[in-house]
Amino acid sequence: MTTPSPAEDSRRSTQENVFLFVPNLIGYTRIVFAVASLYYMPLHPRTCSLLYSISCLLDALDGAAARRLDQSTRFGAVLDMITDRCTTTCLLVFLASAFPRWSIVFQGLISLDYSSHYIHMYATLAMGGSRQSHKNIDENRPWAMRLYYSNIYVLFTVCLLNELFFIALYLLSFSSPTLMDQKPTVALPTRPQTWSSPWSAGAMEMARANKIDSAVPWALLAISSVFMLFKQYVNIVQFVEASKWLAQGDMEIRRKERDCREKTS
């Protein structure tokens, strides 16, 4: 087997289209399923949950394809992260409107999710170099980050069950009068004039009147709650660690600047 020459490597690299790599095509498919789930989210909980779950499951497939086909790219990593953040945020926004008493909690979760991943990614690029992945965690980092990022099975399980927790809450917004602080609706007019629009708030109440069984969502919520809490703990830890890493870099830059000024003075 002959080794390709530098000219052949260069020609092959110019012919590659990163946007059409298999993992990125899977990423685009994830977006399609996520957008479709958002379309059905207000009124069709079963369809929405199915489409949203497929989008989440494809998250594992694109990573496996990237490793198998040697098509890991920075664009794919950013696309994956953006898709994760946006889909979770959209679901949390809906939950904030469905459970207004707890809206500040969901707003806090959105803020923590975005800020922790942004500062972690930025610190990795600024301090670790442009070629270092945000998933490469040093041994001196806290155990939670090492466990979360170094094992793909742990990473997938925690992310999947974290999403499952919020999907269960979403289903309970259609099935649990206890969480919704309302009594089960006995009867509703078939076609009130004020609810003529299928996307009105009244239409959402009509959808909730057609209750789905709450036993399964409650079970899913109980199973996934520990993983959701662990995911939020990891977010807090990586936010703190990335902040310390950036502050350390700032101190080193300031020290070098002082040394330069002392040498020139």
Automatic annotation (TrEMBL):
One of its GO terms (cellular component) is Golgi apparatus. GO terms for molecular function: CDP-diacylglycerol-inositol 3-phosphatidyltransferase activity; metal ion binding. Its cofactor is Mg(2+); Mn(2+). Belongs to the CDP-alcohol phosphatidyltransferase class-I family. It catalyses: a CDP-1,2-diacyl-sn-glycerol + myo-inositol = a 1,2-diacyl-sn-glycero-3-phospho-(1D-myo-inositol) + CMP + H(+). The chain crosses the membrane at residues 20-41, 152-172, 215-234. The keyword DNA-binding does not apply. This is CDP-diacylglycerol--inositol 3-phosphatidyltransferase. GO terms for biological process: phosphatidylinositol biosynthetic process.
